[in-house]
């Protein structure tokens, strides 16, 4: 029978990325005290960047090497997210000669296997059907706030019995208390013995444990000494939190949820009120200057937007938009958009046209044959998450200059945030309002922001 002291010693033999030993912080030991005391289900809610993936990766390896024929399952809302934890564990194996001899890492199979017995660590997709029939000795569920249902959690929980398995679920705060995670949290906070002390909530009742570090909803999220209490990791200081808080790319709702542990309900506008309006100014683009164009096409219902961007000598990006609506009950003739791009090419030096291939692939091929550089910009999380953050930072720091076009403003201000496994990205709200010019701005800015400063126009 292993205990927390055994795990602490095991961790001291692991090496993190910089070669230093993995040392368990006090709050991490606090997290796992009930688990090693036999708790069946442990739910941990804590802000990002508090070492949760590293801790669970170490725990998975400890379980694999100390439990006969271990069946350890790792799952998250997406397989890619679950692989983050898996890769942390694989790194520990790589950097430890003893583990290299006893654990075989099969990343292509998303699995680690014991060289001693039939034990394994296995990554599962966040789909309850793929998990049917599993009998875990340990189940690790990451980022439950992203899961669409309790299906996977329920399958794991119901499979714990035959081998006296245990489960740890770890997540940040969610965006809706009516979600499965929100309801579980609400129920846990009503259990006998629940208490909150120094921004740490805890209950251990009948094999179910909750640990949560968070500010209360009405507490000051700009008080960094207070925020530090919701971030118990010793590597967090007021100074490191301030750098994160003051970054132009930090969205207020993101700070509230992922740094303060505060639950927020509903969609969140991606911009503060007045941020776009503050960017209004002289957006004139002189003829002959190098520009990029972003296109977002909506043939039937949505608008189609074409946005031109130029990096001025002062490093600000001047933008102007053309927005087309499809005729009532009809389709937009894309030849109108194609001709406008040609017109722009006559007026400026078009360095490239960024577009999503959906509905514009044929036009892109035609324009490419005419000598224009067409840049495909797929609307994947991998591309749009970092692009959204860069655009947000540029608007907040007023590096974008526009002419006050009210239709463009309506599209830009209608955007909301959508949370993904890679971070937040721009999305449509409900009810859906047009954001086509915002998407055109996004794909255009992604190109022009990294381009050299514009030509010789004197300011």
Give keywords.
six-stranded mixed β-sheet, Nucleotidyltransferase, domain 5, about 450 residues, about 20% strand, 16 helices, Rossmann fold, ten-stranded mixed β-sheet, elongated, alpha/beta
Note the topology.
Blueprint: H1 4-12, H2 26-36, E1 41-45, H3 52-66, E2 71-75, H4 79-94, H5 97-102, E3 103-106, E4 111-114, E5 120-124, H6 128-131, E6 138-142, H7 151-158, E7 166-171, H8 180-189, E8 195-197, E9 200-205, E10 208-213, H9 224-229, H10 238-246, H11 252-258, E11 290-296, E12 304-311, E13 317-324, H12 334-347, E14 349-355, H13 361-369, E15 374-376, H14 381-396, E16 400-401, H15 406-413, E17 416-420, E18 423-427, H16 436-448
Helix pairs in contact: 3-4, 14-16, 15-16
Summarize the structure in words:
The chain has 459 residues and is an alpha/beta fold. It has two domains: 4-258, Rossmann fold, CATH 3.40.50; 277-448, 2-Layer Sandwich (Nucleotidyltransferase, domain 5). The protein contains 16 helices and 18 strands. It has helices at residues 4-12, 26-36, 52-66, 79-94, 97-102, 128-131, 151-158, 180-189, 224-229, 238-246, 252-258, 334-347, 361-369, 381-396, 406-413, 436-448; strands at residues 41-45, 71-75, 103-106, 111-114, 120-124, 138-142, 166-171, 195-197, 200-205, 208-213, 290-296, 304-311, 317-324, 349-355, 374-376, 400-401, 416-420, 423-427. The strands form three sheets. The chain has a ten-stranded mixed β-sheet, with helices on both faces. The longest helix has 16 residues, at 79-94. It is elongated, with a radius of gyration of 26 Å. The model is unreliable at 455-459 (pLDDT under 50).
């Amino acid at each position: 029978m292993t205990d927390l002291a055994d795990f602490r010693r095991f961790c001291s033999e692991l090496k993190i990325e910089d070669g230093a030993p993995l040392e368990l912080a006090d709050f991490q030991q606090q997290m796992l005290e009930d688990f090693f005391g036999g708790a069946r289900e442990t739910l941990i809610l804590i802000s990002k960047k508090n070492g949760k993936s590293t801790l669970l990766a170490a725990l998975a390896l400890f379980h694999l090497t100390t439990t006969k024929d271990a069946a350890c399952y790792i799952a998250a809302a997406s397989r890619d997210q679950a692989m983050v934890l898996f890769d942390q564990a694989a790194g520990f194996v790589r950097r430890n000669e003893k583990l290299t001899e006893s654990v075989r890492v099969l990343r292509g199979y998303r699995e680690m296997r014991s060289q001693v017995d039939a034990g394994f660590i296995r990554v599962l997709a966040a789909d309850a059907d793929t998990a049917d029939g599993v009998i875990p000795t340990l189940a690790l569920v990451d980022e439950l706030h992203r899961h669409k249902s309790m299906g996977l959690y329920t399958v794991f929980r119901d499979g714990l019995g035959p081998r006296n398995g245990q489960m740890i679920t770890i997540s940040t705060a969610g965006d809706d208390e009516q979600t499965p995670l929100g309801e579980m949290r609400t129920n846990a906070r009503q259990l006998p013995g629940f208490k909150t002390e120094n921004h740490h909530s805890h209950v251990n009742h009948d094999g179910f444990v909750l640990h949560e570090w968070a500010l209360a909803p009405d507490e000051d999220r700009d008080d960094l000494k207070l925020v530090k209490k919701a971030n118990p990791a010793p590597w967090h200081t007021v100074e490191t939190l301030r750098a994160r808080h003051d970054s132009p790319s930090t969205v207020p709702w993101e700070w509230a949820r992922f740094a303060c542990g505060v639950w927020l309900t509903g969609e969140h506008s991606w911009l503060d009120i007045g941020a776009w309006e503050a960017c209004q100014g002289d957006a004139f683009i002189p003829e002959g200057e190098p520009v990029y164009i972003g296109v977002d096409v909506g043939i039937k219902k949505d608008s189609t937007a074409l946005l031109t961007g130029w990096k001025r000598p002062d490093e600000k990006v001047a933008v102007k938009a053309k927005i087309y609506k499809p005729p009532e009950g009809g389709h937009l003739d894309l030849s109108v958009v194609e001709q406008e791009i040609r017109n722009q090419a006559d007026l400026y030096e078009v360095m490239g046209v960024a577009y999503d291939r959906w509905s514009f692939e044929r036009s892109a091929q035609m324009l490419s044959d005419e000598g224009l550089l067409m840049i495909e910009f797929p609307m994947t999380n991998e591309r749009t998450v970092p692009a959204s953050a860069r655009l947000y930072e540029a608007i907040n720091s007023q590096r974008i200059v526009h002419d006050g076009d009210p239709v463009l403003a309506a599209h830009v201000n209608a955007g909301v945030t959508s949370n993904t496994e890679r971070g937040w990205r721009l999305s449509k709200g409900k009810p859906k309002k047009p954001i086509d010019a915002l998407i055109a701005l996004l794909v255009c800015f992604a190109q022009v922001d990294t381009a050299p400063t514009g030509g010789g126009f004197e300011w």
